[in-house]
Amino acid sequence: MKIVCTGGQSGGHFYPIISVVQELRRVIREEHLIEPTIYFIAPDPYNKSLLFDLGIVYKRVMSGKQRVYPSFLNFLDKFKIAFGIAEALWKMFWIYPDIVFSKGGYGSVPVVFAAKILGIPVIIHESDSAPGKANLWASKIAKKIAISYPDAAHYFDEKKVAWTGNPVRDEIKVPVLEGAHQYLNFDPDIKTILILGGSLGSQIINNIVIDSISNLIEEYQIIHQTGKANYKEVNETTALLIKGNPNAGRYKCFPYLSDLAMKMSAGAADIVISRAGSTIFEIASWKKPSILIPITETNNDHQRKNAYYYARSGACTVIEENNLTPEIFTSEINRLFNKPELMKEMMISAKNFSKPEAAHLIAKQIIDTLLTHEK
């Protein structure tokens, strides 16, 4: 058996694929099937060492990007997509996989197009409540479509759709509670906030933390994931702002949180502040109240739709970017901490929203489709 996975160039596409691969291997062992060779074909390996650790073979193909704003690069990238399709056709022909699993994003287009030409079945997964262009196009080809939000169903042929939720990797699914504060050198009696900017970091969230940090550390402990590209600037700026403050040790920033650091941070956190991508499902699996700050300019406005869908479940509140000021930011944090009963209700709502079986459901769909196609 040969299975090809593909997806765009963000952690929101990459890590759910890893979760599905882990579950595929588990289901295949349980059902005594032949161990497959699994490939990841995309423009960027994202985390090459993780692919190696899991025995996933990486093959690079070029792809272009169609931006949501006017740009001459959109024209040039059409040629990249065409070249990537030729690359994908060549590599897919020699691999000739039994099935393709796509997470969408522009990086997936050449592989899905090649699968169509070669007659290879495709299953796609949509992480957002409103799909991007790549998955809208791929849905016409796909045998099955897994979705994270029920709202996404009306964008697709509903006969193909299954509501699975979004996969969360085993390594970070369950937060570590015992020893989490000690790991971070934090006081367990002081409320703790975990601030996440997504896999690449968020300049807007970083800026609001910088503007608010002196006030926040008077009351709270802060774990701040800045993104690798932003870390040096944020670290140096906040260090200057809180220099000499007796509470300076309450703020810790990191360019990136390893799996262990993420589980410890989630365990220590009383509330999580984040963008509104696939991280929502990680927060829900941790059963933590949250404040979401959706990106304004996204394909089909999917982050705002994700955020408000999650807010309707009762698990979070939303601050939009155009309302994001230090006063509103700190006021909303204080409001939630001053309402412990509301925080408990948000934790219950997060638990109810979580779909821990998502990776298993998708893995079963892949295997069932693969076995049916082989017959």
Helix-strand layout with pairing:
Elements: E1 2-6, H1 11-30, E2 37-42, H2 48-53, E3 57-60, H3 72-95, E4 99-102, H4 109-118, E5 122-126, H5 133-138, E6 144-147, E7 161-163, H6 170-173, H7 180-184, E8 192-196, H8 203-219, E9 221-225, H9 231-241, E10 251-254, H10 259-268, E11 271-274, H11 279-286, E12 290-292, H12 302-312, E13 316-318, H13 326-337, H14 340-353, H15 358-374
Parallel strand pairs: 1-2, 1-4, 2-3, 4-5, 5-6, 6-7, 8-9, 8-11, 9-10, 11-12, 12-13
Helix pairs in contact: 1-15, 3-4, 8-9, 8-13, 11-14
Strand content: 5-15%
Determine the oligomeric state from the structure: single chain
Domain tally: 2
The neighbouring-strand order within the major sheet is 3-2-1-4-5-6-7
State the name of the first-level CATH class of the largest domain.
Answer: Alpha Beta
Keywords, separated by commas or semicolons:
375 residues, alpha/beta, Rossmann fold, 2 domains, 7-stranded parallel beta sheet, 6-stranded parallel beta sheet, 15 helices, 13 strands, elongated
Please give a structural write-up.
This protein is α/β, with parallel strands linked by helices and 375 residues long. The chain has two domains: 2-168 and 356-374, Rossmann fold, CATH 3.40.50; 171-353, Glycogen Phosphorylase B (Rossmann fold). It is 47% helix and 15% strand. It is built from 15 helices and 13 strands. The mean pLDDT is 92.
